[in-house]
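pinned: reference chain
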Amino acid sequence: MRIAEVFCHSVDTINTWVAEVIQWLCLPMVIIVTIEVILRYVFNRPTIWSWDISIQILALLTALGAGYALLQGTHVRVDVIVSRLPPRVNVIIDLVMMLLFFFGVGLLMWWFKDEMLDSIAVREVWESLWAPPLYPLKVIMFVGICLLLLQGLAKFIRDLIIITHPRLGKQL
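pinned: its structure tokens
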């Protein structure tokens, strides 16, 4: 049980730290979009880079924040049904759903790994007039998928412990 506890705590800590760092990307994104709106609609002088940068920042926020969202339980779920069930039944439902989660995220990881490696091999750039490099973004997005998978594994371990050892599960 000690190994499971250390693993779960480590994954939680990593995803929390990543979320605390990437949250600050919202500020430059808001500034960039504000500057673009002012330049485009007030001065009629749009930039060639603001759309690319804001989309990349949003992709980073989404990919790197997914594990933290799972940790906090903020992903979408049907609470109308689940909230009326006993806690133990909820945990069993979560365990079954996590199997679907692992299949989906595993498939995404498998597919995206090839996409990332191809992007690195050709030094892919964004298809726009500005053409910034795209492969670093794909590497970071792959890291985000890995963090999401690890957080899913930590949640699965916690739920499994709650079902098999209810007293220990409350400590995790």
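why pinned: Helices lie at 2-22, 26-41, 50-72, 79-82, 87-122, 135-164, 166-169. Residues 2-169 form one domain.
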